Amino acid sequence: xxxxxxxxxxxxxxxxxxxxxxxxxxxxxxxxxxxxxxxxxxxxxxxxxxxxxxxxxxxxxxxxxxxxxxxxxxxxxxxxxxxxxxxxxxxxxxxxxxxxxxxxx
Length: 105
Fold this sequence. Notes:
CATH class of the domain at 12-76: Mainly Beta
Number of strands: 10
Oligomer: single chain
Helix content: under 10%
CATH architecture of the domain at 12-76: Roll
């Protein structure tokens, strides 16, 4: 089942729950099947990688997915999290940040 999310790839978000709480970053990937997002520089884990023809092996550090409910869109002006809503402007549906009421670009 595919669900619609209000957060998209490239959005600036803040983590609101868990051990990474308070960290900010940009969404690099949205995984719709499990309702998760990968945020740049947040929730880093170490994985042991086997050597292959293209690359060397060793311990690789990469970002692990977070549940989408644990992140919130970042308001650029105040630096705090904001909810996302939708409005119809000039016949077009646009995303709107709830806290300041400004359109999200």
